[in-house]
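Curious: explain these tokens?
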Amino acid sequence: MKELRINEEIIINAGEIDWNSPQEGIDCQVLKIGSKGWQKGRIQIKVNENFQSGETQVCIKFCPDRPNEPISPLDDIRQSEEYKKLLENN
């Protein structure tokens, strides 16, 4: 669709349409291959439709609420109250 004709006098030329999801994203859950379950987060979607060239571009970005697994297996221990008390005593 390159143009929309209402009648002989009114012609609307199509160009581009951009659609963006809200800046803060949309709540969702994804299931990653090899993971232990669903991961909560937000998804951001951007779509650009160019009617002249017929091209459509879609960009999808997932932002996890928090990582599924700690960066290090020791992170959970380091955050514990017992570990903090041990550090204070040394």
